[in-house]
Fold these 2 entries.
Entry 1:
Amino acid sequence: MEWEFSLDNIYDVAKAFWEAFPAQKVFAFHGQMGAGKTTFIQALCKAKDVKDVTGSPTFSIINEYEYLCEGTKRAIFHMDLYRLKDKQEAEQAGVEDVLYSGEICLVEWPEKAPAVFPEDTIHIYIDAISSEKRGLKIADI
Ligand SMILES: Nc1ncnc2c1ncn2[C@@H]1O[C@H](COP(=O)(O)OP(=O)(O)O)[C@@H](O)[C@H]1O
Ligand SMILES: [Mg+2]
């Protein structure tokens, strides 16, 4: 699966993304610094009607947001593993627990702790085609 998007249609692509993955839980976002991982994850959260999507400087390894899933409050976890050194540190931070919590997890820098990801993780690759255009590729579906 492959999409191309700019900031003008990022929200449409975010909605199409959730339509393509209605039941999957763990999503690993690969891509260089500045590729647009955080920006796309924020669009995904918005598309789920998350109220308080933060891009704040206090962003920690694990951020928990809330959304309504068929009328029930559920969590979405946005994780940025960039500052993690190894698997042990990922475990200490609680990354593994969250990945197996059954809630939606959107994870940046999965390369920092590849061993902790569930087997059915969806791997997504984002790259900058130009200053405004981004490409998003999803393997094997
Ligand atoms: N189509 C696009 N999708 C995502 N980001 C874009 C796009 N076009 C421009 N940008 C800009 O690229 C930068 C991406 O930054 P960010 O999402 O923090 O990347 P990453 O999390 O991959 O390091 C932001 O400044 C954003 O405004
Ligand atoms: Mg980021």
Entry 2:
Amino acid sequence: METYAVGPELHALPSALPIPDSGLQPVNAYLLRGEQPMLVDAGMPVDRDAFEEALWSLVDPADLRWIAITHDDRDHTGSLTRILDHAPGAKIVTNGISLTRLSEEFEIPRGRVVTVNSGSRISIGDRKVSFHRPPTFDSPGTLAVFDHEAGTLFSSDSFGTVLPETVQHVGDADAKEFFEGFDVLNRAIAPWTALVDAEKFLRTVHAVSSLSPARVLSAHGPTVEGRMVTSLMEAMARIPFLPAWLPGADVDLEAALDAHGARAAPDCPGTRLSRR
Ligand SMILES: [Fe+2]
Ligand SMILES: [Fe+2]
């Protein structure tokens, strides 16, 4: 795993996941060093050895103090328990729902967890970080993490993309491909965006935009900084106006129903919701 510096005391631990017919989904964790080093997310299970080797090349296990788990999905928790074992001074900071869901798979000592909600703030040494619900997400406990010192928004799954090749910085990607991938990923993780009240959704975009992030670091995208942050927010504001995105399937249910004459007419009693 080839780590790279994103900013002062800030490093990416990058990997990627092939998405059939769409390209590569970046899968990044981040390490914020400083007085009390904080890891944001913990890699994929398939990457465990390489991830941990890369992590411990950047920080001494004895120095790691915080592991922010933005949500419980496997691509954010692959090395979590091994890191806890290796770094006895580190505490998890996550949402209570994420903690419950993590507990389905892992035994996590309650004394090593600090739970937070959207709006919570904590101090990690000389830095203040706050937690925020990002506009798109695929797990109910999802929180973005905002470092007030550097203006970095760690946006979890939100604001990610799918690209033909992974790049470190958005400026290294073709802008059209970046935003096409953005539309795919943000709907793939949140197909419910096609159902939401756009005005209410926009409030969530404004909430993170009003933090005035200097850079946005998605778990699934390259570094976005400067004026491109505005373009990113504008792209997110368009998401609820797009139809839901679905992946390809080997079996087309609708075609199969048509072929067998089994599709119910709209007014067929079998298609009505029963009311009691
Ligand atoms: Fe996720
Ligand atoms: Fe993810």
